[in-house]
TrEMBL record:
SUPFAM superfamilies: C-terminal effector domain of the bipartite response regulators. Residues 8-65 form the HTH luxR-type domain. InterPro entries: Sig_transdc_resp-reg_C-effctor (IPR016032), Tscrpt_reg_LuxR_C (IPR000792), WH-like_DNA-bd_sf (IPR036388). This is HTH luxR-type domain-containing protein. Coiled coil: none annotated. It comes from the Bacteria.
Amino acid sequence: MRQDGGWLPGPDARPTRALALLITGLTDDAVARRLAVSRRTVQRAVRDLMDAAGARTRMQLGHHAACVGLPLPELPAVVEPRDRPAPADLRLLALLLADARVDRVLGVSSRSVEREVRRLMTLAGAKSRVQLGWLATRRGWL
C-alpha cells in the first residue's frame, strides 16, 4: 500500500470528491446523485483510487485517505466512543486492514466476521467500511 499522497488526485477531482463523500457515510447511490453521475461511475472512480493506492478493500482505502489527510466535507456529528476498543476489536481491525482471510485466521464463519464488523462500525459510529477505516485511523486505533 502506498503511504504517500501521490495516489490521490487533486481535491477537486471527481474521484477525490467521491471518496470524501463516501467517508462522510454516504452510499454509492447518494454520492452519484450528489455528483450527478451514475452509481457505476462512482464505483469505477473508487476502484481506480483503490488501484492507485494499492488498496484491496474500501476499508484500506479509508485508512489511506486518513493517512494522507484527505480534506473532507463536514462529517456528520459522530459521537466519540467513551472507551478505546477492546484488544480483540483492535486485532479484528488490524486483520481487516491487512486484508487477511479473517474468518480463517479467527476460526469463525464469514457471517460471524460480518456481524463483528457491523458491531465495530456501530462502536466507531461508521456507516460504511471506508468510513470505518478512516475513523479508526484518525482515532489512532490502527
